[in-house]
User: Fold this.
Amino acid sequence: MNNLEPKEVFSIFDEIRKVPRPSKHEEQISAWLVRFAQEHGIDHTVDDAMNVIMRVPATPGYENKPGIILQAHMDMVCEKNGDVNHDFMKDPIDTYVDGDWLKARGTTLGGDDGIGVAMALAALTSKTLKHPALECLFTVDEETGLTGANRLKDGCLNGKMLINLDSEDDGQIFIGCAGGIDTLAKMHFTPATVDTKDLFAARISVKGLMGGHSGDDINKGRGNANILIIRFLYEMMQTDGFQLAAINGGNLRNAIAREAEAVFTVRMSEKENLRIRFNEYVAAIEGELSDLEKDMHFDLESTDMPAAFIPEEQAKRLIRTIMACPHGVVEMSRDMPGLVQTSTNLASVKMRDGYVEINTSQRSSVESQKHYIKDKVECALSAACDEITHGDGYPGWKPNVHSPLMEVVKKAYVDLFKAEPKVLAIHAGLECGLFLEKYPYLDMVSIGPQMYGVHSPQERLSIASTGRCWQWLCRTLESL
Assistant:
């Protein structure tokens, strides 16, 4: 990676990818950032959330220019393919170059938002870049709770302008984002034993789905593994001898589920019919998704007879409930064509000891709709679940179409590339809404290089786009 351009950015990213940094486990990356600041003689502070703030003075000639904040988050989404042996708590990310793309072998790359951290650190340490006073804020736990932004104290930032480096689209300036709230539901049950004589146990699984970011990719029609499994179980649950023993799918609330499986039984006499119905089901789903989900793969295989099951009526109620739980785009924005306004993600269904746990994530750029879809999800899940809780949520970031910083960033792009950048809002969540609550005067934009497949093992970062984004950031800082 040290041979990639811009070297000052990729050499730092190469160091970052070696440091474990799962969300809620940022101890190592926060300590690494402190060591980086110490080694380069950069003034720095660490708060009680492990957020790191670094500051360097203005370069000669820029002393009277307004200072600016560069911001990125240090944690990463940790997703891997089921057949990959990787421990995110200790193993470095195994990267490789494929043409213009930087990728990881079977895991998320961590370009979201490691490349933003790398660009901010490169700006802090550059010997040639001209800039006003720089503050760099590196936050923890953006991906699973925005904990760092939530716990950021008043008065610790000096700048009046902020560039967030957590976007994933080349040549686009984001000036707004959706707010979000998570829902966690549990269905408790006492495991049941049944007469397994004359029963046949089977395991159904789906793998190879694209998955992706539950904000950026929710409108792209990708398959959700939880839904694909539950649709088959719903078809089968009236079959003689049906009992549900296990169901598991998805992992993270902000990722579309890529893999899922379930273990169930039917009467031995239904064994042949099961295979026929499975083949018919797979053919139907391929008819729906094969143009998009090129690597989707279903399996149905016999398995050892389970020792216990979810009680039959609870199992059927659970299947109906998940079938009824909404997933996907709820409403598109009327103000910004093409922008998803409200959505929900059926993120994970997990079998625990004595209960089934369902995680969903709701997003909306309209605060009232965020709570409406949260309530709608709760109503659906309450048919089977006896415990439902919601996270604290986070606010959206209302676009400021008259932003002076946006005009500077636009002009920098035009000067460099002789083309107009797009100015948009994003359906994904950014920390900017939380910053505005504590620093309401902040003028903010968000930019970043081109990435695809974030929050999934298909994550890839454009090398050329990273170079352009670095040039763009430098020109912006020099133009302020």
